[in-house]
Amino acid sequence: MKRSCLVALAIFASVATGFAQAPGRGTAVLYPVLFDDTGTSTSRAVTKTALGEVLSSGGFRLVSDSTAASAWKKLGVRTPSYTKVPKVADLARFGSRVGARYVVMAQVHFHTRSIWVNLGPKTVSNCDISVTIVDATKNAIVYEQDGEGRSDEKSDALKVAGALLITPLITAVSGGPKTPQESRAGQIAAVRSLQRFVTVN
User: Fold this and answer.
1) pLDDT for 11-50, tens place per residue?
2) Within 13 Å of residue 97, how many CA atoms lie on the same side as its CB?
């Protein structure tokens, strides 16, 4: 009886959020994830992890970072950067090499500043992520989406983030250091940039 209740609650939670674990949706490779000169090393790592968690929650099997990096190097194409993204044909070839149907490329930018609220300063960070997904079997872009997150958001959209992230949203203290602010903003932006792609209809 207790087990049945737990199963029922799990199903209800899945339906209520509009998302479900969807095994067998194919293999994806999250590479390259390109940053400009903004963001700390920690906030960059958290944001990249969040992108992977959203894909995994959507039912996609991910190629490991080490396999992806090695395969990219063997392609013999130039190293990508935030302003010099790979060609679609190269991304498709890369996907085929690692056995992934979907190649997920992301460009990430942070903007952190201190604003004055009431009687004191407040640290706020925004993260903008542009995602491009190439279907290696079609040699074509099948998804493009920009996602923005702000560290001090308190909207209902955060419930969606909670449903798609494995790691809980980072708590960012007002007026504190920028790394937790950027990390939280990155998590929210990661969800928004991939939400339409991973939604189970």
Assistant:
1) 333 333 334 444 568 999 999 999 999 999 999 999 999 9
2) 17
Dihedral sign, Cα of residue 30, residue 33, residue 39, residue 41 = positive
Residue 198: in which H helix or E strand, if any?
helix 178-198
The DSSP bridge pattern shows strands 120-135 and 102-117 to be: antiparallel
Specify the pLDDT at position 168: 86
Q: Give 72-130 as a DSSP string.
A: HHHHTPPPP-SSSPPPHHHHHHHHHHHT-SEEEEEEEEEEEEEEEETTEEEEEEEEEEE
Question: At 177, phi and psi to the nearest 5?
Answer: -65, 160
Which of 195, 63, 41, 61 is CA-nearest to residue 129?
Answer: 195
Strand partners, 29: 103
Place of tokens 């207790």: 2
Question: Tens digits of per-residue pLDDT, 98-131?
Answer: 999 999 999 999 999 988 777 777 889 999 999 9
The tens digit of pLDDT for each residue in 128-141 reads 999 999 999 999 99
Cα 102 from Cα 131, distance rounded (Å): 12
Spatial CB neighbours of 88, under 8 Å, sequence gap ≥ 6 = 134, 139, 140, 141
Amino acid at 193: S
**Is 152 exposed, middle or buried (CB count within 10 Å of its CB: 0-12, 13-18, 19+)?**
middle
Cβ-in-10-Å burial (0-12, 13-18, 19+) of 54 comes to buried
